[in-house]
Amino acid sequence: MFALSRLTTLLALGARTRATRITTPNLRVQTQPIYCRPYSQAPSVVLRPYQEACIESCVEALNSGVSRIGVSAPTGSGKTTIFVSLISRLPTPPNRPSATRAIVIVNSIELAKQAAQQVKTMCPDLSVEVEQGQRYKASGAADVTVATYQTLMGSRRLAKFDPTTIKAVIVDEAHHAAAPSYIRVLSHFDPSIRASFLRDETQTANDTLDVPSIIGFSATFSRHDGLALGKVFQRIVYHSDFLDMIKEQWLCNVRFTSVHANLDLTSVTINTRSGDFNPTSLAHVINTDTINDLVFKTWLDRAATRKSTLIFCVNIAHVRDLTNKFREYGVDARYLYSGTPAFERRVLIQEFREGKYPVLVNCAILTEGADIPNIDCVIVARPTRSRNLFAQMIGRGMRLSPGTGKEDCRIIDFVDAIHRVGGVVSTPTLFGLDPDILVDDETPASLAERAESALSPGKSSQAPDIPKPKSVFYTDYEDPLSITPNSYVTQLSPHTWVACGDDVFVLECMGKGYLKVTKNEDGEGFVAHFVPAAADREEASVLGMKSPYFRKRQIAVADTVDAAVKACDTYALNKVVFGRLVSGLLQRAPWRRAPATDNQKKFIAKRLKISLEDGEVTQPDDTAISSSPLADPKRRISLATLTKGQAADIIIRLKHGAMARYDKKKRKSAKEALIEEKERARRERETVRVGPLPQAA
């Protein structure tokens, strides 16, 4: 086995992470008997305390008149056990005496069989049937029917289940319930669901006492694509977080390792609806021989002694290539994907459960509903921006399995070590820590402790020495219409330098030309030019000159803007401006306080495309220059009140491209704000809380 020291050139393994945890809600325990019935027969499974609390919360909500509720519980918490127990306890509603049956809706035949078997085990006195495909056709008269939603999409198959005979509809993996296929099925039992999507207020007001209770269960009770679960379920009545369940030892302990690699996700496109990476685009970055080799060697170094490793890939090609990489090194790795035949899939999963081979590679198949308790290592070889998906993947390894000798589960994920791409979910971000923090062999408890320590008052992380900046730039006043001088430039020089945005500074030399400081083309340092005047604009126009200026001359190169400005000041006083004109360069020159001239006003009005009458602004509301996002939002000024100096500064900015730079910055700022708002909304959708669900997507 490779020693860690031999992998240091490939891996940047480390540790740290913090817990963003959503604690289990405080549940109100009723002092009066809950409206439910006991088991008709003593259960063969003893419920855990949180499972009992969940059932009590469900019954309490249903008794209050809410008919569509959701339960959020992590993978491995025993959701099937909870809803089977709930079904057995729910009585026939007094106003619906014929409603004695229940239907459980799942998304695969494997889950259907598991649920049916659990009903038989826990409630042997209840009749159970399966409705799926051509092989399993239920009568519709069993106490409990477990059906796949795909089969129920058939009108004849759905019609056999009379809503008046159903007391409860259980929806497994309920985060899918807002999809059109589920809406069609669930609306058969409660027409107000379809009405809510059609925004038909008359139908959504139907009496909920006349319809079956609809109860959704999911480990990730939210949708990252924005479809509104609130139009299906009225409220979340119970939520538990996997971190809390690990702490309470209902799930196995976890050891986290994050591998830093040069992934460069900056070029990967993002699905505008889901907010996650597009798989094809992501595969171009992830499915490379270098990255696949890194995945294998990480497994070899950190998990080769593990008995059952489950790996998540980007797409089918990635699945095959990564499987082949393991096989190249002599490891018995197998894979399954959407095209794997059902029989072969069952055999692969069963043999994996039995520990007959150590590595199973998959793509979007085992993220949901896979009950394989012996998994003791999960490798997330596909970056994601979805917290739900990340939680689903790592949750596959959190089930307890003492019978197989499993003590804990190793979680390995891969983080971009060089390029920071916003929104990527990883082990550090799962605990609320910086994604650059190294994580190696950390437990949830240690990561939570790191997180709390990082947030403690008076504590700060050890940051590397940062060199002092060569210069500081204040961009608050880059609005070309601002009448407030740039605070930084005014401190550099006594002369009236004007900031024109993007590190461009101009000094008008009293009609003799102008000095201009800009960034070097390579972005390092500054260059200063003098552009001498050939004639004033009127004279240039009469003479037919294309420009009233001669060709520019480079006069200085400097490392900082301070040095460049000082060089220009010296040049202006020695080569350009002499005698009385020197005082005109000063910030406090008397001429700057005089009222703006008509020509100044006309120039500004023309460039801003506003009209003037007798030198006064006529639109809009006697204001030509209004506030902007990057300046004081309360500022409004009139051309009539401008001084010569203020007008001169505005004209200089307009002449030297400040408006175009400012508009570009405004567009960029608006775009970034929109992206940030979408990202905030996406994160909000992935946050689960007990209480009413929002109706709008």
Automatic annotation (TrEMBL):
Residues 676-688 have a biased composition (Basic and acidic residues). The lineage of its organism: Eukaryota, Fungi, Dikarya, Basidiomycota, Agaricomycotina. InterPro entries: Helicase/UvrB_N, Helicase_ATP-bd, Helicase_C-like, Helicase_Restrict-Modif_Enz, P-loop_NTPase. Residues 60-239 form the Helicase ATP-binding domain. Residues 1-19 form the signal peptide. One of its GO terms (cellular component) is mitochondrial matrix. Residues 676-697 are annotated as: Disordered. Residues 290-451 form the Helicase C-terminal domain. Keywords: ATP-binding, Helicase, Hydrolase, Nucleotide-binding, Signal. SMART domains: DEXDc, HELICc. The keyword Aminoacyl-tRNA synthetase does not apply. It comes from Botryobasidium botryosum (strain FD-172 SS1). GO terms for molecular function: ATP binding; double-stranded DNA helicase activity; forked DNA-dependent helicase activity; hydrolase activity; Y-form DNA binding. CDD domains: SF2_C_EcoAI-like. The keyword RNA-binding does not apply. GO terms for biological process: mitochondrial DNA metabolic process; mitochondrial translational elongation. This is P-loop containing nucleoside triphosphate hydrolase protein.
